[in-house]
Amino acid sequence: MGGYLKEHSRPPAFEGLDAQPYTVSMEVEQTGNLRTPYRGFLVFPRWAETGLGIVGHVETEMLADGRSPEDIESRLGALTLDEVKRHLDEAIQRSRDVGDS
Fold it and tell me: Which pLDDT tens digits describe the chain residue by residue (101 residues)?
């Protein structure tokens, strides 16, 4: 994913298993854990079918723990686009399962 971002200067776009358009961003947050003070996950903004705005989002569970934001960004950036797409579809399915509860 990191290679795509560098090459195209924009996030990759995907069609989710719900047939909706998504992009992806890497997110890093602090944990309070002294051994791994940062963790990271992916957020997938869902775009209006017209492309004129964000109308929702889904996100992954935590995918990486590390010692610095750069460590997390490097690990998330190493994901292939196929892996990112799989995470998107899993996040969509998880949101559906929560809605069914």
Answer: 888 988 999 999 999 999 999 999 999 999 999 999 999 999 999 999 888 899 999 999 999 999 999 999 999 999 999 999 999 999 999 998 886 64
Strand, helix or coil at 52?
coil
Closest CA to 5 of 86, 53, 77: 77
Query: What letter would DSSP give residue 35?
Result: S
3-state secondary structure of 51: coil
Place of tokens 């602090």: 30
Sign of CA dihedral 74, 31, 61, 56: negative
Residue 38's closest CA among 78, 75, 65, 73? 65
